[in-house]
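Support request from a user on the community tier.

User writes: "When I paste my structure tokens into the form, the page sometimes reloads and wipes my input. The last time it worked, I copied everything first. Here is what I submitted, just in case something in the input itself triggers the reload:"
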């Protein structure tokens, strides 16, 4: 096994040769990465099938396509992002000019989770390379086929002193976190985010933490219910609910509860068939530990839709649970599975107060045409990002920085922001 210390030392030495700062070098590296992904595409799809039972369509659309889109966007704009930025100079220094120079931090550590194991390792890597850094990727041990494939792909295209993969379990992360990195980009749970930030503090290493949390979806009485049902089902049951920005719980106005549930039931059948358990393309739960954790929630309240599960196959069918309240076990932690608790409301105000009282969500989704209500929610509730009359789509735009706030994370990336997050901005006043 590679040693963390030597690896970081060799990357730092390589960084100081200055090669990775060269824009042509970065562009060439991004092109190599693109070719590598194309060459390994079938293996990526196979690995995602082995680890999570993702169908080829789902795996391509929610992992490979997103990474390729980010790559192409970076290739198209890198020259302008990396150029020095002239800014005005204050009038008290009339003979001065001011410029901001984006520069790479040095050696970056990228720690990835298991739920989108390809996208969440390679997406941040694009930013690290574009900004001119070296990088070490630590994939999740819970998706071993993708972890191996990540190692093979990267080893095939990059020298270890530039980009390397260190596979392994928690001890590997722990060993890496003891080393001094120049930037740490972590995606995973809030609990491990705290561990990462503590370790980073030892070396005063800046961090981005892309964490999780409970993201509400609110459906008001004036919403287009068919559309809301379609978009909630897509957002909630993609990857069997194992999506950081999946709607975690549903708050629906009491007047439209029955109709919305009817629409959601129909949409689930349309999308996954009458017997989801027999649908070979429905992703499974990542392991028995998570399956058992989720099974407890199936006992919470009562199933309004679905409710069946199969431990041998690690399958849980899309399930909506009623008869729950803010104190129910299912409302105490991020669900991260295909279970959606439903609560009704009459007055939105106490509901918003309850959301604000809790940790800031990673995402929030609101279905209403009512502009005043949209503004009220945006004004009162702090959350990472989200959608009005949709779910998940905010994270697919190159123009919307993606990240959490408070316990759902700090910092953001995607599009140009991926370049910025891996860059230090050196401000120079010249006289
Ligand atoms: P996790 O925190 O358990 O693991 C993430 C990574 O950290 C893995 O590589 C793992 O090996 C490593 N790790 C685990 N324990 C560690 C420790 N004690 N010390 C150091 N490293 C350790 O998260 P997960 O279960 O892989 O992913 C699920 C979580 O990630 C959910 O909370 C989800 O919301 C969140 N998530 C967030 C985003 C986002 O973009 N904000 C995206 C995907 C997942």
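"...and here is what came back when it finally went through:"
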């Amino acid at each position: 096994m590679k040693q963390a210390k030597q690896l970081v030392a060799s990357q730092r030495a390589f960084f100081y040769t200055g090669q990775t700062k060269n824009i042509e070098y970065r562009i060439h590296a991004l092109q190599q990465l693109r070719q590598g992904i194309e060459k390994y595409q079938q293996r990526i799809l196979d690995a995602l099938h082995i680890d999570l039972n993702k169908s080829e369509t789902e795996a391509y659309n929610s992992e490979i396509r997103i990474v390729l889109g980010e790559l192409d966007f970076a290739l198209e704009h890198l020259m302008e992002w990396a150029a020095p930025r002239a800014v005005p100079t204050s009038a008290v220094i009339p003979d001065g000019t001011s410029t901001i120079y984006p520069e790479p931090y040095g050696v970056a550590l990228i720690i990835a989770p298991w739920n989108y194991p390809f996208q969440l390792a390679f997406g941040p890597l694009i930013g690290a390379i574009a900004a001119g850094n070296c990088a070490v990727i630590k994939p999740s041990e819970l998706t071993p086929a993708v972890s191996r494939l990540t190692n093979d792909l990267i080893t095939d295209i990059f020298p270890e002193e530039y980009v390397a993969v260190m596979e392994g379990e928690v001890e590997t992360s722990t060993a890496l976190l003891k080393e001094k990195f120049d930037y740490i980009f972590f995606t995973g749970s809030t609990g491990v985010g705290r561990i990462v930030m503590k370790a980073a503090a030892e070396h005063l290493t800046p961090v981005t933490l892309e964490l999780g949390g409970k993201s509400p979806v609110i459906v008001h009485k004036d919403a287009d219910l068919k559309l809301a049902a379609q978009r909630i089902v897509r957002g909630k049951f993609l990857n069997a609910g194992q999506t950081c920005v999946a709607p975690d719980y549903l708050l629906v106005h009491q007047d439209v509860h029955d109709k919305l549930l009817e629409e959601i039931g129909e949409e689930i059948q349309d999308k996954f068939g009458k017997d989801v358990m027999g649908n070979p393309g429905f992703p499974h739960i990542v392991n028995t530990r998570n399956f058992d954790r989720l099974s407890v929630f199936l006992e919470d309240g009562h199933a309004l839709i679905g409710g069946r599960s199969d431990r041998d196959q690690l399958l849980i069918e899309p399930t909506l649970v009623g008869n729950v309240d803010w104190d129910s076990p299912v409302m105490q932690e991020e669900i991260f599975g295909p279970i959606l608790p439903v609560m009704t409301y009459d007055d939105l105000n106490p509901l918003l107060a309850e959301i604000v009282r809790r940790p800031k969500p990673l995402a929030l989704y609101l279905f209403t045409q009512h502009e005043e209500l949209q503004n009220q929610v945006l004004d009162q509730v702090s959350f990472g990002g989200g959608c009005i009359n949709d779910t998940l789509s905010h994270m697919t735009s190159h123009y919307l920085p993606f990240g959490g706030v408070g316990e759902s994370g700090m910092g953001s990336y995607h599009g140009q922001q991926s370049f910025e997050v891996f860059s230090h901005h050196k401000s120079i006043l010249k006289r």
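Agent notes: The reload is a front-end session timeout and is unrelated to the input. The longest strand covers residues 97-104. The longest helix spans residues 56-82. Escalated to web team.
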